[in-house]
Amino acid sequence: MSWRGILVYAENYSGSIHRASFELLGKARGLLPKIGGVLHAAIVTSEENAEKHSKELIAFGADEVLEYIVKERFLPNPVVHRNALIDAISYAKPKLVLVPATPWGRSIAPRVAAAIRTGITADCLDVYVDDAGDIVQVRPAFTGNIIAHIKTLTSPVMATVRPGVFPLPQPDYSRKGEVIAKNLSLSEDDDVRVVGVSKRKTVKLSEATIIVSIGKGVRSKEDIKLFEELAKALNAQLACSRPLVDMGWMERDRQVGFSGNIVRPRLYIALGISGAPQHIAGMKDSQYIIAVNTDPSAPIAKYCDLFVVGDIYDIAKKLLQALEGFKEVK
Amino acid sequence: MAPPHAEPALRDAIARGVDRAILLSDKRFAGADTLATSYTLAAAIRRLGSFDIILCGEKSVDGDTAHVGPEVAEHLKIPHISFVTRVVDITRDRIIVEADYGDAYYTVDLKLPALIALSRPVIFKEEFVEPSMPKISDVLRAKRAKIEVWNADYLSDVADVGRFGLAGSPTRVVKAYYALEKERMARFVKGDESIITLLNTLKELGVIQ
């Protein structure tokens, strides 16, 4: 059996395609000349959105879209996506399968890899073809301290890829592509029943351009209001380190770190955050980092561009006052 | 599944309420990637017999893949949900959880047996679940407790030993190095200088005008 081309799994459990899927299509287009074959995209979608979704996937680079149309209620069911991806792989026989390393993708892709008994590499930062013509996957390990280059001996090569590492390509809606409607036998068992959305996320830190982040230097839950005001004055999102989430003071979606959100804003302001490795792993790639801390020997000093030695309450209040004379740039 | 030095972690689990601890340890398990690791864990679970629920963490600190849990579930052909932040309810044959899909939290109702991969912090019904310090008496009891050690041969009637460890791992690390950190030379300011410097920096960065 010969394996050719690339298959991108387009993430869609809510009715809209996750943008990381488009990033992967862009990356795959760049890899394709070295790998050969065509670029497939596989999507589980509904009757209502199928046409729109296929057009988008072709505009972003897919040559052939494998379309699995299901009833709306099956969209957020991971079992359906697992079955669709296994079917798409056996149809397209791709050399490489790329899946966004979102929580959803990191749940579906490994199941598929285990089912078809192939190797899978998690949360990749890059994928390239080496001089020998082999696909190499690049990923961080040990809280991001080690970078490993990994080859897969089985076919297809499967990887989940971190959202945001590849640029969003320019869509070209004049591109031509093929749409192949695929059938999925939906079993009527009720092993997994999705009841529905329990809570929408109010904040997406990974998309924030300015972040004001607070840590253990905050003394009480009520005090958070002050830093909320500062974030608002700077047109920034408020974030935090893990202790504040563990204490129930801040919601999980605002946690920056290895076990929370990995962020890359233009400006990251760390207030009263000492800089534990688990926090650093989530923010070290920010463009500019300001730290405010009473202790100039705090580990975060090694990871910031400007260190203000001082009390975060005092600095926040004075800065808020001073900002009254300025306008934030929208 | 770990080298023998992982024993203290199992003793800690016993001190916190676990009845029986098994360490899967064998040179033939070494060098395993997620496929071989999950295959070995699934084999051991099969060897144990029946179960209702498999609980695991979101991901390990060293590997950081979050892939092993779902792969174990696939080998055992049972449903799973990852990134679970709340257990809403549990009955004899079903469990209802809330899971982070990425853009939103979904409520999912699974048939047991099932595997659940939990993210921190976890809410059980309405309560935050906080690991509490074990009592001294429990720590002492755990110190004397027996830790069963299972090797590859012990799993040979429920698994193909050729799928363990490096031999059963399709991925190979071909190169590894320390991550190059972006060099940052922090400028330190304090006192009266602080606010002026902050304002100037915000202006330079185009945050305020």
TrEMBL record, chain A:
Q: Which Pfam families match?
A: ETF, ETF_alpha
Protein name as it appears in the record: Electron transfer flavoprotein subunit alpha/FixB family protein
UniProt lineage: Archaea, Thermoproteota, Thermoprotei, Desulfurococcales, Desulfurococcaceae
Q: Which UniProt keywords apply?
A: Flavoprotein, Transport
Q: Which organism is it from?
A: Ignisphaera aggregans
- What GO biological process, any one, is recorded here? fatty acid beta-oxidation using acyl-CoA dehydrogenase
Domain (Electron transfer flavoprotein alpha/beta-subunit N-terminal): residue spans on this chain: 6-195
Quick check: keyword Flavoprotein in the entry?
A: yes
Q: Name one GO molecular function term.
A: flavin adenine dinucleotide binding
